[in-house]
Amino acid sequence: MTSTPPGGLPPERARLVASLRELRTGTGLSLAALAAKTTFSKSSWERYLNGKTLPPSRAVRELCRLAGEPEGRCLALWELAESEWSGRAAPTRTDPPTASEGEGSTGGGRGAALAIIASVCALAAGGLSVALVLLAGQSIDGRPSPAPSAAPSPRCRGAACEGRSPMQMKCGTDPRTLASHRTAGGAHLELRYSAACGAGWARMWSTRIGDRLELDPADGGRPYAAKITDGVAAQSYVYTPMTGAGPGTTIRACFRPVTGEGHECFDARV
Question: Do the Cβ atoms of 174 and 152 come closer than 8 Å?
Answer without folding.
Answer: no
